[in-house]
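Box 3.1 A note on notation
Throughout this textbook, protein chains are presented in two layers. The first layer is the amino acid sequence; the second is a token string describing backbone geometry. Keep the layers aligned when reading.
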Amino acid sequence: MVETSSSLLELGGPVVLVLLGISVAALAVIFAKVFQFSNARVGRHGQVRRAVAQWRTGERSKASQNLLKDRSLSAALVRNAMDAIQMLDQQALSSQERDIREERLREEISARAADRLFGLASWLKALDLVTQISPLLGLFGTVLGMIETFQTLQESGAAANPATLAGGIWVALLTTACGLAVAIPVSVAVTWFETRLEKERAAIEVLLTGVFTAGSGSALNPNPAAS
């Protein structure tokens, strides 16, 4: 394995070395994002859905308490909304003032959700950049290799060996293959992360709507489809 890597670096030159560095950095970011998503329990809404269902049936204190041990992002946001609404319930407010404060609260919770989701999306643009520049770097290495090969062919003149030309071409194409080998798995990872984020964003929106519309006569189902 070590000999193969050394051969690739020797044949591909500095372009393969750059691609190797990019692939190592991208792999580190991917592992960090997987840990971050796991820590935020992205896509795990079972407990939160049950709490929202309890909230909508009038068991408000119990619903909020059931989310205390849930470390997910959605649970934290829903619990904040529930606690804030219960504080409003304890205040003697007119209907108009209650509506104004509840709308302001909803905006604050939505802004907090957007901020947390933005944090989860960090470094995804960098990974997306890797998927774009890796094939281009590989192609750049191929172009440089082809230039060198044809220069050698020109210098050889009539004594040019077709085998030498073929060898030079496959070595030049090696950098393109390396670029694609880096870009394809990173592209798959980026798509997976972005899909999970979109599902999480939709789930949080539905769950929060279920909390804020409880008792308003809304027939909205607060249980998003499981991710």
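Residues 121 and 173 are 34 Å apart (CA to CA). The first helix runs from residue 2 to 12.
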